[in-house]
Design a protein that fits this description.
The structure is a homodimer of 448-residue chains. Chain A is of the alpha/beta class. Chain A folds into three domains: 66 residues, Arc Repressor Mutant, subunit A, CATH 1.10.10.10; 127 residues, Aspartate Aminotransferase, domain 1, CATH 3.90.1150; 236 residues, 3-Layer(aba) Sandwich (Aspartate Aminotransferase, domain 2), CATH 3.40.640.10. In chain A, the strands form five sheets. Chain A has a seven-stranded mixed sheet, with helices on both faces. In chain A, strands 13-14-17-16 form a four-stranded antiparallel sheet, covered by helices on one side. Chain A has a two-stranded antiparallel sheet with strand order 1-2.
Chain lengths: 448, 448
């Protein structure tokens, strides 16, 4: 039996994985371009590109600006893995890698209380194979909460529960590929992992332009969709301005394109009047993506999409015939929201993270006045600009002190024409309240 | 950009889905063979076959013995969907479709107690992005429990938590395809869904032969793997005999093939000395698959695989870089097992289902002495033989009475040479204790 393209792609990814595992390809090694390697191996170029995409999605490879595709330096990859990998060495003192809230602040007592109520109230059929969209109680609670908190216009019927934003993007990648979409415009700086998930669905990612006001979100003609973090751009920290919101919605209406509104940090806006979700402007052509990973804990594996009605059925089909998400956490989350506990938790979390950001700004003004904080006052991370060429040196010096931070350059789309100045991305949400002052002081030690 | 094979496959599946959704293809319609349709559309045959496989996996199509591939009659598909579809009509009185335990018996109080302990004891990092294999507490608890209860030889390092046996088979399908496997031998009668999941990974499923002792499990030369339910064959209810266990393990050792031991109903053996898992005979070439879906509740989305050490890394990679399973249910399940609550729950459940089976056998002897119960005394379902040609009539008569049962023929592999006599598959585990006597009496009304 002749192997189809998919078999070739699998064989390629496996061969590359094996090469990394065995150490034949060492971390940091630069791979040939997918075009060149495809020519050498006599396989189709898009199959090779898809294989690279799979491996980026899985974290084996990293697409890096200017240097093409590299074997991932595991110390600087997906935060959880990086942390797990660091445990045995015992050298990590402070973790400021963005992407996780303060896990010591998980509201255990309130969550247990909500679990008790949810377990008591659940109808028997809740324990069975569920509606593939997720539990109706949670979809109803979210429709209300998101309308109030984020200006999202949706109905419980068009909400799809998923196991994380990555899972949501995987589903949307399948939906887009099923509609014969070919390309998705993305922000020039964004997590590698998201680009990889889209590439794994055979979608090309096109970097959007960037100017001092932030991302110019209107994609080139012929693009099928655009993925944005309008509330608080990850990692650059800007908020998408009003005229640009209108412009990207106009683009979607004009071309039939789809906007993916990843409402990253949408619940954590500190100083200014909270900006609502882009989805509220055009629920018929914007998908809203939200998650409990940043507001509560990644371990809950709870995220949600509000879908344009015309897309809902395809997205449910792509999720699969049975609900793959655990039901009790869904029922507990529904109870947590409707009882008001989620609102209280969010207010406390907003205070916690605003205080941390404030203390970071104050400390910098005193100890490192040349380092600028960029982006709006929001979220769990911020960007600290560095002198040109300083990024690698600062990262190395931080590593020697047992302080883990991310450099901005690792988030750059390999084909972006825009290169931001050197900078650190500091996740001030990750440490506990007890550890944060010491982590901050260690960071000042490196920057001052 | 030319579309790769995968794009063609997506376009084909979407076109067929749309035809079903729009009603152009009505339930029960027979589709042309994948070979013929591929020729007509000018696409590769294996792409067409993979598209059919996808749609069988998703439940849109059904592969049926003798009649090729049909548009699924939703009334007789995946139990959850069948039930959900039936709710609005209000006509369903008794549900005896196999595939679900008695959901009213979920041990809510004991589960809440375990949740409280788990939430109190959890380290902070449990709430983060976890080990892709699943929580270590649960893997350790399972390694002990499975050794004692099922004779499984494994270590926590080689256990992989997944969100159901379907998720496990999806992972194994990817692993096999990554190793360039082409075919998996399967039992001649088995859930369509499992065949579909393997087909979606471009694996051909080959039906094994059947004789009065049950499945002959030794696959033809050149087969890469074999999927079996050795403890209690689903749906036929036989237990794989000792000499055949040895024979299939010998095959695996001789050829390097893989045995997938789906320990369906392994915890529910009633009369005889409990037969251990096949995996215990050869942990180096058998994958063990177990689940809480039948012992506790499908809504937990908790299942587990014990993997041959040589396979573990590939399976973890196929699962993905982050744990997609909710963490609190994992920690709660670990606590539920180690506290002894799971053992108590299993003993009570065993009594419940044994009593139901006994009452069914007694009622048949009295009211329908010609109907024979086949299979060993185990599990949540049994097979009732019917006079030749009676199956469809009995199903229709059951439906008129608001009684839902499955016919045996729907589980047959389309290419199996063996056709079992007409029979019903009765899931006596599904109703509540309160409803069971009435459901039993309604069943007798149809059979007598």
């Amino acid at each position: 039996m002749k192997r189809a393209g998919r078999g070739v792609r699998r064989a390629l990814t496996e061969a590359l994985r094996e090469a990394v595992r065995s150490g034949r390809l060492t971390p940091g090694t630069r791979l040939p371009s997918s075009r060149r390697l495809a020519a050498e191996l006599g396989v189709a170029r898009n199959t090779m590109a898809a294989a690279y995409g799979d491996l980026v999605a899985e974290g084996w490879l990293t697409a890096r600006a200017g240097s093409g595709t590299l074997v991932t330096d595991t110390m600087l990859t997906w935060p959880a893995l990086a942390r797990a990998a660091a445990e045995p060495s015992g050298e990590l003192r402070y973790d400021l890698i963005p992407g996780s809230p303060d896990l010591t602040a998980f509201p255990r007592a309130a969550w247990l209380k909500a679990t008790r109520r949810a377990l008591t109230a659940a109808p028997d059929d809740a324990f069975g194979y569920g509606d593939p969209r997720g539990r109706s109680e949670l979809r109803a609670a979210l429709a209300d909460h998101l309308a109030q908190a984020r200006g999202v216009h949706t109905s419980p019927d068009h909400i799809l529960i998923c196991a994380g934003v990555s899972h949501g993007l995987q589903i949307l990648g399948e939906v887009l590929a099923g509609r014969r979409a070919r390309s998705v415009a993305v922000e020039p700086y964004a997590p590698d992992r998201y680009r990889g998930l889209l590439a794994a669905a055979s979608l090309e990612t096109l970097p959007l332009p960037w100017d001092p006001h932030g991302t110019d979100p209107v994609p080139p003609e012929g693009t099928d969709a655009v993925l944005l973090t309008p509330a608080h751009q990850f990692p650059l920290g800007t908020t998408l301005q009003r005229d640009r919101r209108t412009a990207v919605v106009d683009w979607a209406r004009r071309t039939g394109g789809l906007v993916l509104d990843d409402d990253y940090d949408g619940e954590f806006q500190f100083d200014h009047q909270s900006v609502g979700a882009l989805q509220g402007l055009a629920p018929d052509c914007v998908v809203y993506l939200g998650t409990a990973s940043n507001t509560l804990a990644p371990g809950l594996r709870l995220a949600w999409m509000a879908l344009p009605p015309a897309l809902a059925e395809e997205a449910v089909a792509a999720k699969g015939q049975i609900d793959s998400c655990e039901v009790l956490s869904q029922l507990t989350m529904a109870e947590f929201i409707t009882s008001g506990a989620y609102g209280r938790h969010l207010r406390a979390a907003r205070r916690r993270y605003r205080d941390r950001r404030d203390s970071l700004v104050t400390a910098l003004a005193r100890h490192a006045p040349k380092v600028q904080v960029t982006g709006t006052s929001a979220g769990l991370h911020t960007v600290l600009s560095l002198p040109s060429g300083a990024e690698q040196g600062v990262l190395q010096s931080a590593a020697r002190q047992g302080l883990r931070v991310a450099g901005l350059s690792r988030y750059r789309h390999a084909r972006s024409r825009h290169a931001m100045p050197d900078a650190l991305v500091v996740g001030y949400g990750t440490p506990s309240d007890a550890v944060w002052p010491q982590a901050l002081s260690a960071l000042m030690g490196i920057l001052s």
